[in-house]
Every structure is written in C-alpha cells, then in structure tokens.
C-alpha cells in the first residue's frame, strides 16, 4: 500500500509560518528553513520580552517617582516608606503618572506624608 502523506495539512502549516515571516529581509521571508528558524527565534524573543517589558516599566516608574520626590527634598525610598506608614496605597504606575503629568497632585501627596 502506498504511503499516504497529508499534504494539505503540511502546506497549511507552512503557509501559516510563511505569513508570519512577512516583512523579514532577504531569504528570511521566502526560504522555508531560514524563515522557520527566524520565526521561532522571534517568538522566543517576543515571549521573553513580554516579561522584560514589565521589569523595564517598573524601573522607569521608580526613576520618575524619584525625580519628583527629589524636587520636594525627599528620596524615593524615604517617600515609599512614608507612604506605607501613612497607609496611602498608590502603586508606582499611578505615582509616576502624577509626578510627571500632575505635579500639584504629587506635591499634595508629599505634603501629606511629610
């Protein structure tokens, strides 16, 4: 009995991957083996960097809060300690937004914890 190969499914799989390679440069966009490797590597980077993005944003928020706090004579760590002691539950994202875009509201928070 001859060997049966499901070419329809295989072509669908390859076509799906080649569609993901759109926009790549050179052989990465149209040669199956090169494109497959490039796509797999790209997906690994995407997975890794979804996690790294969260860390980078937290660092950015801390820098912004620190800059805002130092304008009012406090360091970041002093401010965060004072916020905890005063039971003010604002996360770093909100504090950073206030420090950058609403300095008067940020100043009122600092005055409250001083």
From TrEMBL:
GO molecular function annotation: rRNA binding; structural constituent of ribosome
Cellular component GO terms held in the UniProt record: ribonucleoprotein complex; ribosome
CDD domains per UniProt: Ribosomal_L20 (cd07026)
Position of the signal peptide: none
Keyword line: Ribonucleoprotein, Ribosomal protein, RNA-binding, rRNA-binding
Pfam families xrefs: Ribosomal_L20 (PF00453)
BP GO annotations: ribosomal large subunit assembly; translation
Keyword Aminoacyl-tRNA synthetase carried by entry: no
NCBIfam families xref list: rplT_bact
UniProt record similarity statement: Belongs to the bacterial ribosomal protein bL20 family.
Protein's job: Binds directly to 23S ribosomal RNA and is necessary for the in vitro assembly process of the 50S ribosomal subunit. It is not involved in the protein synthesizing functions of that subunit.
Protein name per the record: Large ribosomal subunit protein bL20
Protein species of origin: Pontibacter arcticus
Taxonomic lineage: Bacteria, Pseudomonadati, Bacteroidota, Cytophagia, Cytophagales
């Amino acid at each position: 009995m001859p060997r049966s190969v499901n070419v329809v499914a295989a072509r669908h799989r390859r076509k799906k991957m080649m569609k993901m390679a759109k926009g790549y440069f050179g052989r990465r966009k149209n040669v199956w083996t090169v494109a497959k490797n490039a796509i797999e590597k790209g997906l690994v980077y995407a997975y890794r960097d979804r996690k790294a993005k969260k860390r980078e944003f937290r660092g950015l928020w801390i820098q912004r809060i620190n800059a805002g706090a130092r304008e009012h004579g406090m360091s970041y760590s002093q401010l965060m300690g004072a916020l905890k002691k005063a039971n003010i539950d604002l996360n770093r994202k909100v504090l950073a937004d206030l420090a950058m875009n609403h300095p008067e509201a940020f100043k009122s928070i600092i005055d409250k914890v001083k």
